[in-house]
Queue: 4 jobs
Job 1
Amino acid sequence: MTVVDAEPPHRLSFRWVYEDAVATPANSLLVTFELVPSGVGTLLRFTETGFREKGWEIATLEAKYADHSRGWDTFLGNIVDYATRLASTP
């Protein structure tokens, strides 16, 4: 994993790669978390890009994208639960 951008407490972007290699735009996916004020709370904006740039065949690209979507649904839900617990701690 390679951190690309960090603006605490607003944004964190990193590149990660499956292989045991240095993450670059050519071999990695870019993940970005942004915290955006929204009313009395905060919106977590998440993106993961770079699937098409990997050069995968369409079937592989679609399978990887679906797998990542399922995984991030779980992990992002955990972040929401964690943040909710933190916010309710005196």
Job 2
Amino acid sequence: MKLQHRIIGEGKPLIILHGLFGSSDNWQTHAKRFSDYFQVILVDQRNHGHTDWSDDFNYELLAEDLHELITDLGFEKVHLLGHSMGGKTVMRYAQLYPDTIEKLIVVDMGIKKYPPHHQQILAGIHALSQTPMDSRSKAEEILTPFVPETGTRQFLMKNLYWIEKGKLAWRMNVTVLEREMENILAALPEGEVLVQTLFIRGALSGYIPEEDISAIEDQFPDSTFVTIQHAGHWVHAEQPEEFMNTVLEFLLR
């Protein structure tokens, strides 16, 4: 599938992939900073943002979508950065196409299978979908009991757009994403990746606990782990300066 994308800056290519329920819009501020050093490609994965919807959704397809984009853009080697679901996409891509990667950055995502944990977000999305969405303030009012965290709620609401006058709709394919949640939460297949890799985790996030690190190092033996304090799963949004400095230090050294 052809992925919608935007290119900012010049230099070595750095491709950024968002997480579940996200889009390339979540990374615009970071892209501007990174574009001082790299040609940054902000991508919408399938069923998200401005990229087409599809009934099929798994990491094999997401990795192949990414490969098609890299091929179409004529890049021989790229830096890859993926957050959450995007982190698992770039890890699977690295297993399939390691020779096309210069350096790899995985943001707050491990290799294991995760238990279901998006129930409240999905309940809020359903509550919104069952109510005529004719204003953003009304949409936020409906969503708040399900998603009380302001940052997470605003993140989700970036997916709302005016499909016609007085009517909001989702840019993400909620039906397929919910149906394929088991695939989204699935473990990365076994397979060693020798690409130089940085794992960034939030100190307040439980996605990469200490006991998981040895298993990750078995599959990514050339890996480094950085923990950013006072940050949860959306580490790049919660501590943007420290996050960007950590990324640049890794990519530029």
Job 3
Amino acid sequence: MPTATPTPTEVRQPRGVPLLVLLATAALGVGLGFALPPLARWLQGVLERSPLPSLGPVELLAGLPLAWSVPIVGGLGVVGGVLLALSTIGESLRLTVTDDHLEHRTDAREGWVERADVADVFRDGRYVVLLGPAGAPRERLDADTLRRDELRAAFEAHGWPWRDGDPYERAYERWLDGRPGFTAAEQALLRRRLAERKDPAVVAEVDEALAGHGLVVRVREDRLQVRRLGVVPAEDVRGAQG
């Protein structure tokens, strides 16, 4: 294991990502500036040959010369690109990893995790997951914009227990509505977790409630998997550091 270092390590999305978002959106705007007037003229001709009424916006675009449409729509693309780039920066996870704690920040949320409270750290798809000594989730952070190798190197440089995968992988079982072994309250929470799995705020709320019942859940191929805290898997990857 690498020797821990006292200097904090910052991990954040590559600086070029917001610029690429800006350039791509601006280029799309310029492209639409060239394409919209001819497309509008074609659509206007179709409408004139049909019983359908002509549309005011279509007529406006059809009569717009390229000398106007390109700078107008292109300018809107630049404005949209700036807003998207700022949103990308604000929503992206920023980490500060030290020997004794982790700080995580987005514009909407920030937090602190003590190293002593963490027994396992691993990447689970787009997320970085920190587990406590008993396998309870300590944090589940959306790290989709962070480089995998850079993320792992930061934790290992400060002596955190990075794993190659979930050490409780074999403890998960697929949940089906009505499957025995769950209380009525747990079944209701699991139904809500599956139904609203794409709402991050609801997911965080339900996961916290499930943790109160001693349950940990995750989604695989749009199906819910669940494990109980305290169940030790037959095999794990705790020794995998390579």
Job 4
Amino acid sequence: MTDQDSIRFTIGQRIVLSVVPRIVWALLWVVGLTWRFEVIAEDGVIPVVFGEKAGPEIYCFWHQCVLPCTLYFRRSGAVILISRSFDGELITRILRMFGFDAVRGSSSRGAREGLLGLKSVIETGRTAIFTADGPRGPIYETKMGPIKLAQTTGAPIGAFHLQPEHAWTLSSWDRFLVPKPFTRIIVSWAQWTRVPSDLPAVQFETKRQELNNAVERARLRALAHLGQQAS
């Protein structure tokens, strides 16, 4: 714990940060060993499969499937953008125990610094990850960050969704999914989004909507594969 952490967080928060990540890591690791992943993809899309080291790419998914994504991509060496908040610090410490790294910032706080950090990630050959509608929503609506990063780096944006067949759904803004033990989880990939380096800023919204549609298609396709209704 650094002096900066001591000033930034209360004593109660520091206790939580010291204890909770280890508990969550242990529980998620044990339960995650029982999950069965099944990969599907739109025509022409080559998905990133479990265990592969990811390259200089950008990944986007909805905030609700953070838990299964943590297990599925734990060997990817990816770096995720996480907000500068207490919740963000908690998530960062948990993800680092699974082999991820983090750049701090969000669409509302430290956005510029976060994007510069992820630009460096791409330039060193690693993968940058966005929870596309995080950290506070609205649900199923991507932010502009992935488009700006793709435009400055030339990295393609992969859109996917992980949908458990059986899960607890929390009453949070994102309808956060907690997969049940021994469940099947569909890893659904949609078409990649590519942003030209010379794309005018006035056309960023069109690309953002293209990415939004891709992530949502991945979710809906996973639900259809399981015979479930979209909510």
